[in-house]
Design brief:
The chain crosses the membrane at residues 12-30. By secondary structure, this protein is mainly alpha-helical. It folds into 4 domains: 1-156, Serine Threonine Protein Phosphatase 5, Tetratricopeptide repeat; 161-229, Alpha Horseshoe (Serine Threonine Protein Phosphatase 5, Tetratricopeptide repeat), CATH 1.25.40.10; 231-284, Alpha Horseshoe (Serine Threonine Protein Phosphatase 5, Tetratricopeptide repeat); 310-479, Alpha Horseshoe (Serine Threonine Protein Phosphatase 5, Tetratricopeptide repeat). Helices cover 75% and strands 0% of the residues. It has helices at 9-30, 32-42, 49-58, 62-76, 78-87, 97-109, 113-126, 131-144, 147-160, 165-177, 181-194, 199-211, 215-228, 233-245, 249-262, 267-279, 283-296, 302-313, 317-330, 335-347, 351-364, 370-381, 385-396, 404-414, 421-426, 431-447, 451-464, 471-479. α21 (351-364) packs antiparallel against α22. The protein is elongated. The chain starts with 8 loop residues before the first helix and ends in a 7-residue tail after the last helix.
């Protein structure tokens, strides 16, 4: 299954900028601040070499500030790092371009977007050609949802250099979100011309190849990312997806486990690892992984749906029903959960829950005869024959009177008239519909006293050995004595 991780843009860019901020500190500490320090020193009166050395040791330099900034940023986060600008930054560096740019980046990490934007505007006026400032302005505009400003900054970068990496990554992401993977890949490849090790561009190109099913190219790209960044979660994640697509479940599971070792709180990593472990038959690991995903995103439905299917597969029906109910609560439009809940409720002889679930199915798909037949059946099992007739009558009025579906529901409504049905069903060419009709004929006899005939038609359904309709499972349960349904 080809899916994508559920992460907000704000979280994603805050994390990225935090990493960039630390990297900027390191690079600036080795380059730009050295020239600044030299300028300060040459402006001083001539002193003896010994006095100069002593002064250097006691003076709090730009390098010292940046080292403290990096330490606090890593240890206590962006807000604590920003406080150093008020408490430790020497006055002579208050207007330093590099440090103000870094302050803007840290403000983005802290999601102080107005402050970050104001600093970017100031820096842009001082140096209109600075690509780093324009790139940070793109990030700020994106986080604020200001598409016009984002487009302006991207165009500004491209006007200076059509191969600007940051701008082409942005254009690639635009196309990627529109699922135009071919065009997105072109932009990501342009980004790599200037920066062949740009992780964002490599990731984007790899994802495009994945969705375009260029699996060999995608694999090479994600392995290259791991050469640059051996702990890159997305690279492990997509290598797992590629292995899964090739039915190499053990390899897929190993990659997903490596992704989890790096980022154990990642929702998508837990989802994928659980899926691979399920295919390997490691049900406990799958259950634990999807339970962890639920802890991470308790208000998102997908992990509940996966875990429900796992419980269902193991005949842990009560747990499965609870998870399906949670799926419906969180995503009322998830059609398949209603059908699964209805089937399991039949097994548990919870007729009202089954009927209500099949009612939702019928609301979504009026053309599937299974649902009105099941609803009518459940009304009978609830002891409410009047509503069974009222409901089935309303459905019958809108159906083709010559169809086999009409004839079967008519029999349920009248509780009689089934005798012509076996011959009509045996002559059918549609195997799925034929199987369904045999099942409902058996169910009719189960309800109204023909146990021997019921067993005969249940057996016909099971002998078809083509479970493309959910009634096949119910017939199997009935022949194996797992559910009475009578």
């Amino acid at each position: 299954m080809k899916s994508s991780v559920k992460t907000t843009l704000a979280e994603l860019f805050a994390a990225v900028v935090l990493v960039v901020a630390v990297a900027v500190i390191l690079s600036m500490g080795l380059s730009s601040c050295a020239s600044t320090e030299k300028t300060v020193e040459t402006a001083q009166p001539v002193e003896t070499e010994k006095k100069l050395e002593a002064k250097k040791k006691t003076e709090y330099s730009k390098t010292d500030f940046m080292e403290d900034l990096k330490s606090v940023l890593n240890k206590d986060g962006p807000e604590a790092a920003l406080s150093l600008y008020e408490t430790k930054l020497p006055a002579k560096y208050a207007d330093d371009f590099d440090l103000l740019f870094l302050k803007a980046a840290i403000n983005v990490s802290a999601e102080n977007l107005d402050e970050a934007q104001a600093l970017c505007n100031e820096l842009s006026q001082r140096d209109p050609q600075n690509n780093d400032v324009a790139s940070l302005a793109v990030v700020i505009a994106k986080m604020k949802g200001d598409n016009a400003e984002r487009t302006k900054q991207v165009n500004s970068l491209l006007a200076k250099d059509k191969l600007n990496s940051a701008a082409n990554v942005e254009l690639g992401e635009d196309m990627f979100l529109k699922k135009n993977y071919k065009q997105a890949k072109i932009y990501y490849k342009r980004a790599l011309v200037r920066e062949p090790e740009n992780i964002d561009a490599l990731r984007g190109a790899g994802q495009c190849d994945y969705y375009l099913e260029n699996d060999d190219e995608a694999e090479k790209t994600f392995k290259k990312i791991l050469e640059i960044d051996p702990k890159n979660t997305q690279a492990f994640l997509y290598l797992g997806k590629l292995a899964y697509a090739a039915n190499e479940y053990k390899i897929a599971s190993d990659y997903a486990k490596q992704a989890l070792d790096v980022d154990p709180e990642n929702y998508e990593c837990n989802m994928d690892y659980g899926m691979y472990e399920r295919y390997l038959g490691h049900y406990k690991n799958a259950e634990s992984s999807w339970t962890k995903a639920i802890e991470i995103e308790p208000d998102y439905f997908l992990a509940y749906a996966y875990r429900a299917g796992l419980y269902d597969e193991q005949d842990i029906f009560v747990n499965a029903m609870e998870d399906y109910k949670k799926v419906i609560e969180l995503n009322p439009n998830y059609y398949f959960a209603y059908e699964s809940l209805g089937i399991l409720a039949l097994h548990e002889e919870n007729w009202t829950t089954a009927r209500e679930a099949f009612m939702k199915c019928y609301d979504s798909n009026k053309n599937n005869i299974s649902y009105p037949l099941m609803i009518t059946y459940c009304y009978y099992k609830e002891g409410n024959g009047t509503e069974a007739k009222n409901f089935s009558n309303q459905v019958l009025r809108k159906m083709d009177r010559n169809s086999i579906e009409y004839s079967m529901l008519r029999v349920f409504h009248d509780r009689a008239g089934e005798r012509p049905l076996p011959q009509r069903i045996s002559a059918m060419t549609n195997r799925n519909l034929q199987g369904k009709m045999y099942y409902y004929l058996a169910l009719f006899y189960d309800m109204f006293g023909g146990t021997e005939l019921a067993n005969e038609y249940y057996a016909k359904v099971v002998s078809m050995n083509s479970p493309m309709f959910f009634e096949f499972r119910l017939a199997e349960w009935r022949t194996k004595g797992k559910v009475p349904l009578k």
